[in-house]
Specification:
Length: 370
């Protein structure tokens, strides 16, 4: 019986792409050796299509002020316990300078969601000032939620060239269970925004959380097919991790064990690498929250992007989307040397000073990669 099962795994792994049933079969693998087999195949595809180079995106969590109330998120508007902050202009520029001087290649500016004109104006000037201070060498990714096409266009024109907006789940029914049922939290708007981002010229990154309450394996299968259909350039797949000051916390007893959520994410990353081949896939901080070597394991399963946190230390403890966030007491230099050692252990190289654009985007748009 066991032998037959393994043969089925060999058969599936010898394919270029997978059917729905095959994706489900892979997501349901439980035997650790078999999961490792899947990881090995994904790493082989990664080496072949994007190389064993890891690109850095220095992550600046520049504000935890948010107008939204997503049920899973620790910094949602309704959480009165959060100490709200906005990193000062100069501190943001200083953090970006650290990234540039340390040859991180790119940064990600992430925040809670705001779309008021003051915020967009501020963000546009931050983006263009960072481009200037880095001699136009730093690549800038934004992760600031849903905006109008016009706002996305302004941000792109200011110099940002990638944007991360996870769909969280591709199932509209599940989406409704994870968000308040109102116009500010509409699944259709989320999808529309993905299209706007592409129209504005961005490399488009998306993703989901794996291991959410009410989420089934079939939902995750559909997520994978969604990313293929929407032709995403970049992905961030992370485990859902509960936060006690959120409405979803009530359902914590329905969750998979943390270890199983971690392996579920690894399987998602590996399947997506094998199927989508030349996109960029992040090994997320949330992976490390569940496993000491979480991010390194993600790289071995096909991820090729790491986002070292370069938020000024005094703010790090107030950007808690989920509990047990790692490294919040380490400054940027400590993170840098720790990561370097960890990545070398995986056998990957670090692409210092390179943008590491999504090869998928570059080949489809015949653009120039740096
Ligand atoms: N406000 C922006 C960016 C910050 S949130 C936005 O929502 O897009 C970035 C990501 O954090 C979200 O897309 C979500 O997938 C993830 N996140 C939020 N709460 C989380 C939790 N409890 N566990 C794991 N990931 C979470
Ligand atoms: Fe705000 Fe993003 Fe958290 Fe939703 S996930 S509450 S938009 S920070």
């Amino acid at each position: 019986m066991f032998k037959n099962y393994n043969m089925e795994l060999q058969r599936v792994l010898s394919k270029e792409s997978f059917s729905k049933d095959e994706i489900k079969f892979l997501l349901q693998l439980e035997n650790r050796d078999e999961i490792e087999e899947l990881g090995k195949k994904a790493y082989q595809i990664k080496k072949e299509f994007v190389g064993n180079v890891v690109y850095y995106r220095g992550l600046i969590e520049f504000s935890n002020i948010c107008t939204k109330d997503c049920y899973y998120c620790g910094i949602r508007k309704g959480n009165a316990k959060v100490n709200r902050y906005q990193v000062t202009y100069d501190e943001i520029l200083e953090a970006a300078k650290f990234a540039w001087e340390n040859k991180y290649g790119s940064i990600v500016l992430q925040s809670g969601e705001r779309s008021d004109p003051k915020f967009i104006d501020l963000l546009c000037s931050i983006v263009s000032d960072i481009k200037k201070l880095s001699n136009y060498e730093l690549g800038i990714t934004l992760s600031c939620g849903e905006q109008s096409l016009e706002n996305y266009q302004r941000l792109f024109d200011a110099g940002a060239h990638r944007y991360l907006l996870r769909i969280e789940t591709s199932n509209p029914v599940l989406y409704k269970k994870l968000h308040p049922n109102n116009a500010d939290h509409s699944f259709d708007t989320r999808i529309e925004c993905i299209k706007y981002l592409r129209k504005a010229g961005f490399q488009v990154g998306s993703g989901v959380m794996a291991g959410l309450p009410f989420q089934s394996i079939d939902d995750l299968v559909e997520d994978i097919l969604f990313f293929k259909e929407y032709n995403v350039d970049m992905l961030g797949i992370g485990p859902y991790i509960e936060h006690s000051d959120t409405p979803l916390y009530e359902y914590s007893n329905q969750l998979l064990k943390k270890e199983d959520r971690f392996y579920l994410c690894l399987k998602m990353i590996a399947i997506l690498r094998i199927m989508l081949k030349d996109i960029n896939i992040a090994s997320t901080t949330a992976m490390q929250a569940l496993h000491l070597m979480g991010r390194e394991k993600g790289l071995r399963f096909g991820a090729n992007i790491i986002m070292p946190n370069i938020t000024p230390l005094q703010y790090k403890g107030d950007y808690l989307l989920y509990e047990d966030k790692p490294c919040i007491d380490e400054d940027s230099s400590q993170c840098k040397s720790c990561l370097e050692i960890r990545i070398k252990m995986t056998g990957d190289e670090i692409g210092y000073g390179l943008w590491g654009d999504s090869k998928h985007f570059v080949s489809e748009n015949k653009g120039d990669a740096k």
